[in-house]
Write a structure and sequence with these properties.
Number of domains: 1
Catalytic activity: 1-(2-carboxyphenylamino)-1-deoxy-D-ribulose 5-phosphate + H(+) = (1S,2R)-1-C-(indol-3-yl)glycerol 3-phosphate + CO2 + H2O
Strand content: 15-25%
CATH class: Alpha Beta
Organism: Natrinema hispanicum
Oligomer: single chain
Distance between the termini: 36 Å
Keywords: Amino-acid biosynthesis, Aromatic amino acid biosynthesis, Decarboxylase, Lyase, Tryptophan biosynthesis
CATH topology: TIM Barrel
Pathway: Amino-acid biosynthesis; L-tryptophan biosynthesis; L-tryptophan from chorismate: step 4/5
Shape: globular
Largest sheet: 8 strands, parallel, barrel
Structural class: alpha/beta
InterPro entries: Aldolase_TIM, Indglycph_syn_Halo_TrpC, Indole-3-glycerol_P_synth, Indole-3-glycerol_P_synth_dom, Indole-3-GlycerolPSynthase_CS, RibuloseP-bd_barrel
Number of helices: 11
Length: about 260
């Protein structure tokens, strides 16, 4: 794990809370829905592969959405989302394992559990199709990737710079997310993906995360090599109703030409 002295106080607080949470009662076993297949299906249908995020709040969000998470998730799928990301971190993001379980039961697309998983015990909380592992915060990435796969999860390894990308590839990661948000300053720069996502093997699924708020951003990340886009705030924060969530999702999945530019 890299030094936490460089992390924003909010991130340090999140990590401390993650260490204090206990694991599950037993080892989880998952029959996972394939993310690569779901992304390929979206491409075949003419949609940009978007992983829409159910995120009630966050340290960088303005306010909290109290909507039923299942209704939000269904609205995202109705808008064309190829997969979903669901926050299960309770203290800083308002998420819960129960919400993920309810969402996964209600939809037929792959669901990513997005949380700060630091060890094997942290995996055994709830069934999901994918499990987030943040390269910067774990000591034995290769071991955790193996442990996740033993449980049936598809591990999504998140990186922020070239060194972390190389670490992820060496550890055997097959699904990698490049986070445009710098966890040291909580600032977002889309150039991060463009600078990091180079010389990645063709058999690795590469996902651009954070800061994608418009169709132009979607096209920019796709041109830089993103096989999919993980989008939260641009879908969650811009509208009060489920129809707004559906519309926000649809504007992004349809962002293949400049004809779809506009606010999201």
């Amino acid at each position: 794990m890299n030094s936490e002295t460089e992390l924003a106080p909010a991130v340090q607080s999140i990590l401390e809370a993650a260490r204090e949470r206990s694991g599950g009662d037993g080892v989880v076993s998952v029959d996972a829905r394939s993310l690569p297949d779901a992304l390929a299906d979206a491409e075949a249908a003419g949609r940009v592969p978007v992983i829409a995020e159910v995120k009630p709040t966050s340290p960088t969000a303005d306010g909290t959405r109290d909507d039923d998470p299942v209704a939000l998730a269904q609205a995202m799928v109705d808008g064309g989302a190829a997969a979903l990301s669901v926050l299960t971190e309770p203290t800083h993001f308002g998420g819960s394992p129960d919400a993920l379980s309810r969402i996964r039961e209600a939809v037929d697309v792959p669901v990513l559990r997005k949380d700060f998983v630091l060890d094997e015990a942290g995996m055994d909380i709830v069934e999901a199709d994918l499990l987030l592992l943040i390269a910067r915060f774990v000591d034995d990435l290769e071991g955790l990737i193996a442990a996740a796969r033993e449980r049936g999860f598809q591990p999504l390894v998140e990186v922020h710079d070239q060194a972390e990308l190389e670490t992820a590839l060496e550890a055997g990661a097959e699904i990698i997310g490049v986070n445009n948000r710098d966890l040291a300053r909580l600032e977002v720069d889309l150039e991060t993906f463009e600078s990091v996502a180079t010389e990645v093997p063709d058999d690795v699924t590469l996902i651009a995360e954070s800061g994608i708020s418009s169709p132009a951003d979607v096209r920019r990340m796709r041109e830089a090599g993103a096989g999919a886009l993980l989008v939260g705030s641009a879908i969650m924060d811009h509208g009060a109703g489920d129809s707004d969530v559906t519309g926000n999702t649809r504007r992004l999945v349809d962002a293949k030409s400049s004809d779809h530019d506009g606010d999201c």
